[in-house]
Amino acid sequence: METVELSINARPVHVRTVRLMIVTSVARLNGVGEDILDEVRLAVGEAFSRAVEAHVRHCPDEPIRLELTGGEHRFEVTVSDTVPGDDPGGFPAAPDADDLEYGFGEGAAELGLAVIAGLADDVDISATPKGVQIRMSWPAEAQAIV
After folding, report:
1. Rounded to an integer, what distance in angstroms lies between the CA atom of residue 49 and that of residue 55?
2. CA neighbor of 26 nearest in space, from 63, 81, 82, 71
3. pLDDT exceeds cutoff 90 at 112
4. How far apart are CA 54 and CA 75, in angstroms?
5. Residue 146 and residue 36: Cα distance in Å, rounded?
6. Residues near 142 by Cβ (< 8 Å), separated by ≥ 6?
């Protein structure tokens, strides 16, 4: 199982780069079909946009972590921010709209997460003392040989 790991500056201009160049290239290399490639790009774009917005408001100098993993018939993307939760220990019991809102317009974080859930086969959202992590995965054929 190969993993591509990147740390990317939290700038809105990078959302397009992540979505169109990085995710598209790595997904294709890992056998993601063209029929679901748009779903992959949109879901990752939503997750990365949410992380950028959170970083811009709370820790603009910290990078966002992106992990893309190809495995046995699955392609997985994890977007991790470094904005801790709101409780005193920095670790909310479970991520909910308040924990993930970070000053977005009312309901924007919930809507983005609903879009991600509708586009990815499997989604896991977890809050840690170091931030929020969104893991998404899709089916993939055998890895392409490069």
Report:
1. 10
2. 71
3. no
4. 25
5. 21
6. 31, 73
Would you say 46 and 112 are in contact if contact means Cβ atoms under 8 Å apart?
yes
Could you give the domains of the chain? 2-139 (3.30.565.10)
pLDDT in tens, 77-94: 999 999 876 432 333 333
3-state DSSP assignment of residue 146: coil
**CA–CA gap between residue 52 and residue 87 (Å, rounded):** 21
Cα(97)–Cα(95) distance, integer angstroms: 7
- What pTM did the predictor assign? 0.79
Task: Show the tokens assigned to 106.
Answer: 């009312």
- pLDDT digit string (tens) for 41-100? 999 999 999 999 999 989 999 999 999 999 889 999 999 999 876 432 333 333 444 444
* One-letter amino acid for residue 77 of the chain: V
| Strands, sheet with 122-128, edge to edge from the N-terminal-most edge strand | 2-8, 64-71, 74-80, 131-139, 122-128
